[in-house]
Design goal:
Protein name: 25S rRNA (Uridine(2843)-N(3))-methyltransferase
InterPro entries: Methyltransf_34 (IPR021463)
CATH class: Alpha Beta
Strand content: 15-25%
CATH topology: Rossmann fold
CATH superfamily: Vaccinia Virus protein VP39
Shape: globular
Helix content: 25-40%
Largest sheet: 7 strands, mixed
Organism: Hortaea werneckii (Black yeast)
Number of strands: 11
Strand order of the largest sheet: 4-3-2-5-6-11-9
Radius of gyration: 20 Å
Number of domains: 1
Structural class: alpha/beta
Distance between the termini: 60 Å
Length: about 350
């Protein structure tokens, strides 16, 4: 049974250039916006994902003052303060992660066919859990989206499992633990719920279906051995509204991280990048300093001359899907105790392949 908001308030959808996250200011020079996407994810599942955040984090309109404090620190790029206070983390996750989770869930559905193709082409199909590594994924949006994504395969849920690793520079372990618990226990029902409702009440996933590990880690300073052991066996690595922040922090180190991911990730695995459309970074190429779109820098590093040559297996990437600018819009009928925002984003999905020999 899907429950609405305890307050009965409809989740209003307010669009922002940053896709619902003040950390990612979007340039007005973004490409043409495609038809708004209200999603193909069942309404009941979207509401259930919101209920996970509601029950785990207890969002309240009284948090408005704290939200403004967090916004101020993010605007000033004072990330150590914004993400160094446990109360700030809880309020941030309850305010910005829910709409992100629904947007990510839609993206996972949209690119599902590429993952299925990779599984079909595997020479030795594995019964191991699908391994997913989320870089910058501490605030819980990726976790709830992945849980919702897996829950759609209800008839096969016992056979499909996820091993999710979340890495973030902030300490999100407490928030992630609360969300994980609400994913694997049945939703709270009213004491007046019918016997049939109580009988049908189920957790989104069983504990056996999902394993979650949340770690505090500056991914730009990852030791090589740890990075390789973490992503070497991953089926999917995600950078959701994280890459542009990394570019802004240290462009050279970010380019190096992408090159190291290329070296470490296995053939057939995928790299999914989602960020604000119209993001630009300044870079010096051939002695000339210029601003380049984030997506150009990403393609340059993974597909162009930024790719290091001479590796034993000729590691490279194929871009299998991309979208320069899209809206994910919340249904006005969704219920959540506080106001949520629509999400505008760009998306790129790459598949790790062998390099084609030069003729």
């Amino acid at each position: 049974m899907v429950q609405g908001s305890k307050s009965g308030k409809t989740a209003k959808a307010r669009g922002t250039k940053s896709g619902g996250n003040p950390r990612n200011a979007t340039s007005n020079n973004a490409g043409a916006i495609k038809q708004p996407n209200t999603g193909t994810v069942p309404f009941e599942l979207q509401q259930r994902c919101l209920n996970v955040f509601r029950d785990a984090l207890g969002p309240d309109e009284q948090d408005a003052k704290t939200v403004q404090e967090v916004k101020g620190h993010l605007y000033n790029r004072d990330f150590s303060t914004a993400f160094g206070n446990p109360e700030y983390l809880k309020v941030y996750a309850s305010r910005w992660s829910p709409s992100r989770a629904l947007g990510y869930l839609q993206i996972f559905n949209d690119v599902q066919r590429h993952f299925d193709v990779a599984a079909d082409e595997s020479e030795s199909p594995s019964t191991k859990p699908r391994s997913i590594v989320c870089l910058g994924g501490g605030a819980g949006a990726e976790l709830v989206a992945l849980a919702g994504w897996l829950s759609q395969s209800a008839s096969e849920a016992e056979e499909q499992k996820l091993d999710v690793k979340l890495f973030d520079i902030a300490s999100w372990e407490s928030v992630v633990s609360c969300l994980e618990r609400r994913i694997v226990i049945p939703p709270e029902l009213s004491k007046y719920a019918s016997a049939a409702a109580k009988e049908a009440n189920r957790a989104m996933l069983s504990e056996e279906c999902i394993k979650v590990d949340s770690q505090q880690q500056d991914i730009l300073e990852w030791p090589e051995t740890i990075l390789k052991s973490t992503v070497g066996g991953a089926d999917l690595v995600t950078l959701m509204f994280t890459l542009n922040e990394l570019y802004s922090t240290n462009l050279a180190a970010t380019q190096q991280l992408l090159a190291r991911l290329t070296d470490c990730m296995q053939l057939g695995s995928h790299l999914l990048v989602v960020d604000s459309p119209g993001s630009y970074s300044t870079v010096s190429i051939n002695g000339a300093e210029k601003k380049y779109p984030m997506q150009w820098l990403l393609d340059y590093t993974l597909l162009g001359s930024g790719q290091k040559k001479g590796k034993d297996d000729g590691a490279k990437w194929a871009k299998v899907e991309s979208d320069e600018s899209r809206w994910f819009r919340l249904s006005p009928d969704l219920k959540y105790p506080i106001e949520l925002e629509n999400m505008r984003f760009q998306m790129r999905l790459y598949r790790r392949v062998k390099e084609t020999p030069e003729e």
